[in-house]
Automatic annotation (TrEMBL):
This is Histone deacetylase. One of its GO terms (biological process) is heterochromatin formation. Residues 38-325 form the Histone deacetylase domain. Residues 391-432 are annotated as: Disordered. InterPro entries: HDAC_I/II, HDACs, His_deacetylse_dom, His_deacetylse_dom_sf, Ureohydrolase_dom_sf. Pfam families: Hist_deacetyl. Keywords: Chromatin regulator, Hydrolase, Metal-binding, Nucleus, Repressor, Transcription, Transcription regulation. It comes from Lachancea nothofagi CBS 11611. It is an enzyme of class 3 (hydrolase). Belongs to the histone deacetylase family. HD Type 1 subfamily. One of its GO terms (cellular component) is Rpd3L-Expanded complex. Substrate binds at residues 109, 159, 313. Its EC number is 3.5.1.98. It catalyses: N(6)-acetyl-L-lysyl-[histone] + H2O = L-lysyl-[histone] + acetate.
Length: 432
């Protein structure tokens, strides 16, 4: 196999088809703060929203404020003890939880801040409700930029992430879809999502990330899953300075092959903005259009897709890129001139939409990438072609029950019909 990086043509970022887009945004999310010196700024989601609104994209899509995720919903993946801790700990009572703070890895990278639990529930609610709308065929694309927190583990915070909204969204999708593909273009390895589905063939995870002396230190080529999940975890370890043309020449063949081989019926795309050029914590050299090309390519398959945020620590670049990608998802290419918005001064001195690459040296040699691609394709060839799954009858969602008289003896759940109906479902031992 010969690796070839073709020149990157920004015009290859196309718009295709006509999609119904559901966009989830909660105005409270930009008010939370990890601390003044912390690189993670939820404020960038508010900046993104301001650009989206001022570009007039609200006319193209349906905008929702998701119901915050409940404890019960969070505990579909996370441990009860961990979620209980998140709901009770505050900066004022932190001293009472010293043992738990160590156990659940809360401290430096993942500080306790005011409204931590509310922040988690907003992030989780958006991804779960986006997945639920996709399941019911109410939209073709669901967007939740407050989500994408891919490092959180079952009972542990990690890498600025406390609640793994992606895993919760995928669990929701698995109620209707036999196979779900997770794609991660954050500069960091999507370790929390990979770990959650490491032993199942119902979710294939594919992460493109910097590998080698870089957080979280996982995601090498040989990490491919275990047991039933063997070869259903795909890792693409990259080096510093990767540019648009090189990234495209790796991303498209890998995703193209996975789509052909795995045939997912739903996709979750994590759009971490720290793979952009000039990021405070990242070390890649992607322009806005190079990053957006990934979104455009995934969209071209026409499969129900949940798009979530993720990392990104140079706020103006993240906001520009996510706004541009929202345009693409709505089949609109946004104007280069930024419209006046609430945070206009952040985008000086040029006030342009673009995020340009720098002259950073690309350490990814053709020989290295050829070796990576050969390894990935060899692993994919040994997977079972589009594994089949025995699907159970899915209980009705509450919205689909029509004007059925409510039985007061039956506890209702918004996403799963009646609790009684859900209790009748037989769960296989190897479901996850």
């Amino acid at each position: 196999m010969v690796y070839e990086a073709k020149p990157f043509d920004p015009l290859t970022v196309k718009t295709t088809g006509k999609d119904r887009v559901a966009y989830f945004y909660d105005a409270d999310v930009g008010s939370f703060s990890y601390g003044s010196s912390h690189p993670m700024k939820p404020h960038r989601i508010r900046m993104t929203h301001s650009l989206i609104m001022n570009y007039g994209l609200y006319k193209k899509m349906e905008i929702y404020r998701a119901k915050p995720a409940t404890k019960q919903e969070m505990c579909q993946f996370h441990s009860d003890e961990y979620i209980d801790f998140l709901s009770r700990v505050t900066p004022d009572n932190l001293e009472m939880f010293q043992k738990e703070s160590v156990k659940f890895n809360v401290g430096d990278d993942c500080p306790v801040f005011d409204g931590l639990y509310e922040y988690c529930s907003i992030s989780g609610g958006g991804s779960m409700e986006g997945a639920a709308r996709l399941n019911r065929g109410k939209c073709d694309v669901a967007i939740n930029y407050a989500g994408g927190l891919h490092h959180a583990k079952k009972a542990e915070a990690s890498g600025f992430c406390y609640l793994n909204d992606i895993v919760l969204g995928i669990i929701e999708l698995l109620r209707y879809h036999p196979r779900v593909l997770y794609i991660d273009i954050d500069v960091h390895h999507g370790d929390g999502v990979e770990e959650a589905f490491y032993t199942t063939d119902r979710v294939m995870t594919c992460s493109f990330h910097k590998y080698g002396e870089f957080f979280p230190g996982t995601g090498e080529l040989r990490d491919t899953g275990v047991a039933k999940g063997k070869n259903y975890s795909v890792n693409v370890p990259l080096r510093d300075g990767i540019d648009d043309a090189t990234y495209k020449s790796v991303f498209e063949p890998v995703i193209g092959k996975i789509m052909e081989w795995y045939q997912p019926s739903a996709i979750v795309l994590q759009c971490g903005g720290d793979s952009l050029s000039g990021d405070r914590l990242g070390c890649f050299n992607l322009s806005m259009r190079g990053h957006a090309n990934c979104v455009s390519y995934v969209k071209s398959f026409g499969i129900p897709t949940l798009v979530v945020g993720g990392g990104g620590y140079t706020m103006r670049n993240v906001a520009r890129t996510w706004a541009f990608e929202t345009g693409l998802l709505n089949n609109v290419i946004l104007d280069e001139e930024l419209p006046y918005n609430d945070y206009y001064e952040y985008y000086g001195p040029d006030y342009q939409l673009d995020v340009r690459p720098s002259n950073m040296f690309n350490v990814n040699t053709p020989e290295y990438l050829d070796k990576v691609l050969t390894g990935i394709f060899t692993n994919l060839e040994s997977t079972k072609f589009a594994p089949s799954v025995q699907m159970n009858n899915v209980p009705h969602d509450q919205e689909d029950l029509g004007d059925v008289e409510e039985d007061t003896d039956v506890a209702k759940d918004t996403r799963g019909g009646s609790q009684y109906a859900r209790d009748q479902m037989i769960e296989r031992d190897d479901e996850f």
